[in-house]
Every structure is written in structure tokens, then in C-alpha cells.
Amino acid sequence: QVQLVQSGGGLMQAGGSLRLSCEVSGRTFSFYAMGWFRQAPGKEREFVAVISRSGIVTLYSDSVKGRFTISRDNSKNTVDLQMNSLKPEDTARYYCAADPNTEYHGARTGDSFYDYWGQGTQVTVSS
Q: Which percentage of the chain shows pLDDT scores above 90?
């Protein structure tokens, strides 16, 4: 059984930084492309970032490009999301997710491709 356990997040002032981490267990981590998604109250879940199985390909939503960085450590089975220059509009519950069906350098942004999800962690950015 695949499990994704998230850590990090919390409350931060605008302009600050936070780091989210997600640890995957239950199957070989390198089999998955890993993504981060977020959902704000009253809004649909949206794509934030994805990193390929190889770690070479990364994609970001336009709203976070240049501010957020996704990375993975296949030796530790973790994927991180470094969030800099935070804005109040980044306030949301953040989820990591695993896509088990991509090619080695594949990176997909649709949440329907992701079979496994973390428990979510709240990020609140105050103005």
C-alpha cells in the first residue's frame, strides 16, 4: 500500500518562505512522477508543480513560477516544495500526489493522473 505523508506548512507573512515535504512509502519511489496541488476554500483544486521520475523535468503553474521550486530525493523517498516570496493568494491546503503511469521524463499536470495523495497541509499567508 502506497502512503504519502506530508510535513511542513503553517502560517507566514507575505514575502516569507515555507517548505513542504512529502515522504512516500510502500513502493519504489522512483516509479512515480510527483506533483503538488492546492485547494483554497470555495475553489477547485489546482495544479502547482510536478517533477518527473528522473528529476530532470519540472513544470509549474504560472501563478507560482519563479517563486516555488519542486525537488525530489530518490534516496530518501521525498519530494519537497520550497515556497518563496509568498503571497496571500498562496493560502490554501496543499497536497502532494504520485503519478505511477508516466515515462521516465514525463510530468503531467492533470490531477486525474495521480493515484495516490497525501493528507494535505495548510499554508496560510497573511498580508
A: 96
